[in-house]
Amino acid sequence: MKAIKKNFETKFTGWSFITAAIMLWGGWFLSPHHVGEYLVASDFSAIDKKLWTWIWMYRIHIFGWVIMAISVFALASITFKKPYRVLIAPGIGMVVIGSITLALASAFYYNFGAWGVGNTIGKSAIEIQEFMDNILYTNQYVTCFVRFGRIFSGVGLVLLGLGLVKWKIIAIWLGWLTVLLGLAAMVVIMGIPDNFEIYKPLFHVKAIWLMLMGISILRRGVHLPEFNS
Question: Based on C-alpha coordinates, what's the Rg of the chain?
Answer without folding.
Answer: 20
